[in-house]
Amino acid sequence: MEQYLSSFQADLAAVSTEIEKLQARSAVLNQRLKNRQTVEQLLAPAVDQISIPPALVRKICEDPVDAAWVAALAELERRSQMVEDASKGGKQFKALADIKPLFSDLTDKVPLSHMMALPLLRLPVGARADT
Known about the structure:
Layout: H1 2-50, H2 54-62, H3 67-88, H4 94-108, H5 112-122
């Protein structure tokens, strides 16, 4: 009986040690999570400003020229200008250097037919040839 209790006590001590290790690891993981959430909160606005949403790319490259297309092109230009202004600032970030060519590529890939139709949007409705 004494041997059984000694064995049980040793097993209990081993389980207790394992629980302490898991609690310590859990505390470390919780701290990492809080740190990542803090960084994400701080970086999210900056990333949103310099990113190009897929819907914006599709609108510019695939959709017909209309007021929404012009608005998408203006949004691309606004974001491109933000990247340009940020890269001219004192600090150089790798993310800005990586994204600048993407803005140029997207602007270069705007279909020529879309660019040729752009002036038609600025004409009064009665002056358009298609109406």
